[in-house]
Design a protein that fits this description.
Strand content: under 5%
Oligomer: single chain
CATH topology of the largest domain: Tetracycline Repressor, domain 2
Structural class: mainly alpha
Number of strands: 0
Number of domains: 2
Amino acid sequence: MPRRPPISPTRSALGHLVRPPLRADGRRSYEALLAAADEMFTVHGPGAPLDAIARRAGVSNATLYRHFPDRRDLLVAVCVTEVEALCALGEELLTDANGARALDTWLRTYVDHVRAKHGLAAAFASGGHEDSGFVAACQAPVAAVGAALLARAIEAGAVRPDVRLADVTTLLNAIAMATETTRDPVATEGLLAIVVNGIAPV
């Protein structure tokens, strides 16, 4: 079962969005539900049956609704966990002495993240002000760690100084969408190579 990464300054803004239980028994069922929901949402999309998620987690429907009163609460918790994991990797990569390698690793992980969670992101795309605020809260720490990795790669001379993170992530999002159905690793790698070569100094 995946463990929630420790909260860091980059991700602290997400803390108010979820409230994991403090007691050990409650925390176990909470984490089991998150893991089950992550799997079910990835396979079946954000409309996956909640009772099926509860069964997969080995808990009752009552336990599910005690932790997550409605579907949106569960979607938010899964998204926050995934964003925290992506940011945790980025922060770890910032300690890599090789800035180019660190950025390359994060770019590939970013594509996997977007591709796997596209359905969840779409669930919040057409919502109101509350959903817009949630999306912005998730995007901010990802952008912060991505910008830091890009800056290190630029300093290392591996990326042109005029490259903007927003442009890079736009291309990565397009790659994730283009390969979402087939998930062909050869096609994904070929498209990523175009991006990496395109941002490298001439």
